[in-house]
Design goal:
The structure is a single chain. The chain is α+β, with helices and mostly antiparallel strands and about 70 residues long. It has four helices and three strands; from the N terminus they run αβααββα. Strands 1-3-2 form a three-stranded antiparallel beta sheet. The radius of gyration is 11 Å and the shape is globular. It starts with a helix and ends with a helix.
Length: about 70
Amino acid sequence: MNETFTESIILSACIRPRTLNYLTQHLHGLDPISTLAFLKEMETRELLRCNDGLWLIEENAKKEISEV
């Protein structure tokens, strides 16, 4: 899979909070270690946030915090 395609799949999946296990199962052909590295890189770029083992799009995470 190319990186742009993988990133778009991850962003689509992370509209709702998702576990690493869920993402690994839905990213066919990408092993868990590579998936985690990809997620952490996206977190560094502030596209995603991990909270209690759940990955979520950063914009959605900010909305949830402000709604509380």
